[in-house]
Specification:
257 residues, DNA metabolism protein, 8 strands, DUF4130, alpha/beta, DNA_repair_put, 9 helices, 3-stranded parallel sheet
């Protein structure tokens, strides 16, 4: 068994796919950045990301898949579900070995797996569009912390760039330790160590604009006032706003003291 170690990027994974074909590798598994202890005695191969190789794989897929099917490959990769690289590789092998479009062959476990993973990522990105809550810092930067199940920052970037084009902002994924930053012209990826106590009163007092606490409390009062107790449906509420998002939602955090 050969373990392919790549840099965790989509381009890195595509490069790995190219080199599997180029080197005629078999019985492969993927590992991000460093080897897996479970495969300590397997052969390891370090993949160096090559945009030309990645583009050749992408072009091959683009020729054989519909626009939605092509997009689903990327969305599935961002799902972060267990063994998604192997599922995607088997899917790609099926695509390249078939003379017809295989996207609707849901009897194939890997076609179905890619479809489900892409749906999961799409659903999570739509939720993030609704659940991002910005706070204003003293240097006029709006920042938000999120912890999505899937790696959705690349998918929500344009939504926030278009919606908040006149503001500097940073959306930080605390789970994956990186963020996207918009400087009024362009967006860029940043890797920073964010304060783990970012929701605390002390931390907010240190970095936030002096009016930020007032506006956060105002938003909480508004949220409470529009909720009609007699029409409360907890089950439906949790369905649309799962508890795992609550710690980063202003309206779910008690008033700052």
């Amino acid at each position: 068994m050969t373990q392919l170690i790549y840099d965790s990027t989509f381009e890195g994974w595509l490069t790995a796919v190219f080199e599997i074909y180029e080197l005629k590798l078999e019985d492969i598994v993927f590992a991000k950045n460093e080897t897996s202890g479970a495969l300590l005695f397997s052969d390891s191969y370090l993949v160096i990301t090559d945009t030309a190789k990645a583009k050749r794989v992408l072009n091959g897929l683009k020729e054989r898949l519909s626009a939605d099917g092509f997009a689903n490959v990327y969305k599935a990769f961002l799902s972060d579900i267990d063994k998604i690289e192997e599922i995607l590789f088997r899917f790609v092998k099926y695509v390249f070995s078939s003379s017809k479009n295989i996207e609707e062959d849901l009897a194939n476990a890997d076609v179905l797996g890619v479809r489900k993973a892409a749906h999961l990522t799409g659903k999570e990105s739509h939720r993030m569009n609704a659940f991002v809550r910005f706070k204003l810092t003293k240097d006029n930067l709006y920042y938000a912390i999120v912890e999505p199940d899937c790696d959705v920052l690349p998918l929500i970037e344009n939504h926030f760039k278009n919606r908040y084009a006149d503001q500097r902002w940073l959306i930080y994924d605390a789970k994956r330790k990186y963020g996207i930053y918009y400087d009024l012209e362009n967006t860029s990826t940043v890797e920073i160590q964010f304060n783990a106590q970012s929701g605390s009163s002390k931390f907010l007092a240190e970095i936030c604009d002096e009016n930020e606490e007032f506006f956060q409390n105002l938003w909480r009062r508004y949220f409470s006032s529009v909720n009609i107790e007699s029409r409360k449906n907890t089950k439906l509420h949790l369905q649309h706003m799962p508890k795992r998002y609550w710690k980063n939602l202003t309206e779910k955090i008690p008033n700052l003291k």
